[in-house]
Structures are given as C-alpha cells and as structure tokens.
C-alpha cells in the first residue's frame, strides 16, 4: 500500500468515527496571533505545545528557516491576510536551533537538481529571467540574525498597521525552550525596525 493510500484509508476511519469533533473550531485564531516558523518536522507538535497553543488558537505559517525574504511574497501576504481578514493582532517569528536552512549549500542543491533530470538549459532560462538561484537557495549563518531580519522585513512593510507588535524568538528543537530576541509589545513601527537592524548588522 502506498503512503497516499495509507493516508486515505486512515482518513476514512477518522471521519467515520467522528474523531474530527474534538478539533472543531473557527477560521479565526482565538489568541489573535499569527506565527511564522520553520517547516522542520520536529516542530509540528513541539512548537504549539511548548507555547501552550491548542487547535484554533493561532495561525501558523511555515517556510524553510522561518524566513521572510520578500516583502511581497506569499509569506508576507499570509501575514497581512491573517491581520486584515482573520482578526490577528500580533505576529511572532520563531526560528530554531539546528536549522537545516543554516547549512544550505546552493552548489550542492543545484547539482542535485541537475541529477534529477532538470537540464542546464532550464537553469539558464531561470538565470535569464533575473533569478539568481545561488542567492535564492542559500541558507543563513546565524538563526538569530535570520529571525531579526524576518522581523525587520515584516515591521517595515508599508501595509503593516503600526500598532501590530512583531516578536522574534528562537526555539530549541528538542526541549522546546524559547529564547526571546525581540519583544515587539512596547516597540512598534519605525522604532522596532531600527532596533532589529542593529541586531543583525
């Protein structure tokens, strides 16, 4: 049986036995918080449990390394939709130690891409389109700096309301211990953006 078939078989049982009932909630986050975090498998259950969040409490947006690298990319759009449409009034960026994004080697990734029957011509077309794959696929040297950078990108967005606090934290992927880098509660807008700039420069 394939993994997909295992999923579908289990899902039918899940629905038939009404196991979904304990997860019923609305689309609006009860704690009015949106979290940007990494897609690391260790955080799937650990992060919400370590932060004492239940199903329905928060909006969770995941990306490699919890990186917000483009002010008009899908991550930032999701944050703004969570605020303007889904009643979130606080943002929290949570990176983690031992993050795979900290060890990304663009050369190795591109080599693997070529080994998977994506030809060199395709890479040249991408380059011609103005995309630097080496820059796009690179990781970061410091998770603390990366979190501060993501907070800065969010804070500087022209559509982010000035009253929305943006926090930056790092979580340990084994113990779940949180380290606070930036408390955006008392500092919003330009003041917080300036502080985060100093933090990662």
Automatic annotation (TrEMBL):
Known EC number: 4.2.1.1
Cofactor info, note text: Binds 1 zinc ion per subunit.
CDD domains for the chain: beta_CA_cladeD
Binding site for Zn(2+): 38, 40, 96, 99
UniProtKB keywords: Metal-binding, Zinc
Reactions catalysed according to its record: hydrogencarbonate + H(+) = CO2 + H2O
Stored SMART domains: Pro_CA
Enzyme class: lyase
Domain of life: Bacteria
Cofactors: Zn(2+)
InterPro entries: Carbonic_anhydrase (IPR001765), Carbonic_anhydrase_sf (IPR036874)
Family: Belongs to the beta-class carbonic anhydrase family.
The name this protein goes by in its record: carbonic anhydrase
Species the sequence originates in: Bacillus gobiensis
């Amino acid at each position: 049986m394939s993994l997909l078939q295992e999923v579908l078989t289990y899902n039918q049982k899940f629905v038939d036995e009404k196991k979904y009932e304990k997860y019923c909630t609305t689309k609006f986050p009860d704690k009015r918080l949106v979290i940007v975090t990494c897609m690391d498998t260790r955080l799937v259950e650990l992060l919400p449990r370590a932060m004492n969040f239940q199903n329905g409490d928060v909006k969770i947006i995941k990306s490699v390394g919890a990186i917000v690298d483009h002010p008009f990319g899908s991550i930032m759009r999701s944050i703004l939709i969570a605020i303007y449409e889904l009643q979130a009034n606080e943002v929290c960026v949570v990176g983690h130690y031992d993050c795979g994004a900290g060890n990304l080697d663009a050369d190795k990734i591109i080599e693997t891409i070529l080994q998977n029957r994506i030809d060199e011509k395709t890479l040249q077309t991408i380059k011609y389109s103005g995309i630097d794959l080496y820059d796009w696929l690179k990781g970061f040297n410091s998770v603390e700096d990366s979190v501060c950078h993501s907070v800065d990108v969010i804070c500087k967005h022209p559509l982010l309301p000035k009253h929305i606090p943006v926090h930056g934290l790092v979580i340990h992927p084994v113990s779940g211990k949180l380290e606070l880098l930036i408390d955006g509660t008392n500092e919003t807008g330009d003041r917080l953006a300036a502080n985060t700039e100093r933090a990662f420069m």
